[in-house]
Amino acid sequence: SRRWPSKIELAVHAVAASFDEIEIEDHGSLEADMRAGIGEAARLLRDPSTGGAYAALLAESARDPEGVGLRVRESLSTRLHALVATSVERSIERGEIRQDMIDVDLLADVVVGSVMHRALATGVPDKAFIDGLIALLADVAYARRRREQRETAPP
To answer: Is 108 exposed, middle or buried, given 0-12, 13-18 or 19+ CB atoms closer than 10 A?
Structure first.
């Protein structure tokens, strides 16, 4: 097996440990769950040690997709996706949405990607950003539902 540069291994462990602190409590609705989860992720990524380490790992992943990249995907991406999946599963159980209405992986990529890009590239993912992201996702869901209703409505 490959020897990992210990610095990378340490960074992966440190970021993974901080992601594990993200609590997804049941806040009663998908919107409230997502708001809380995105808020937590944003708070972590704003922390220079976590955000900086994650950014460095992503840069390293781009240089070594099969090595570092694989490790980052297995250890970190799966954690973030699991958080979104938990919120979505809860929402399906509540009857808020149907399983076939949502692509969990796509939603996770959109949410995680947006928060990370904001945290690392364009500024702080503050409350206004989170509100805007939630509103955008809600608009998309609403538009989809409307389109579906039109398509399934009897002529």
So the answer is: buried
Tell me: pLDDT of 3 over 70: no
What's residue 70's pLDDT?
92
Distance CA 125, CA 42 (A): 6
Q: Return all residues near 129 (Cβ < 8 A) that are at least 6 apart.
A: 42, 118
For tokens 């460095």, name the residue. Answer: 56
Length of the chain counted residue by residue? 155
Are 22 and 44 in contact by the 8 Å Cβ rule? The answer is: yes
Task: Please give the C-alpha separations between residue 29 and each of 90, 106, 153, in angstroms, as whole numbers.
Answer: 8, 20, 27
- Stretch 66-93: mean pLDDT: 88
Average pLDDT value for residue range 113-142: 86
Q: What is the pLDDT of residue 63?
A: 93
CA nearest neighbour of 134 among 29, 21, 24: 29
**CA–CA separation, 22 and 8 (whole Å):** 22
Single-letter residue type at 131: D
- Alpha-carbon 83 to chain mean position: 7
The pTM of this model reads 0.76
**Three-state SS at 129:** helix
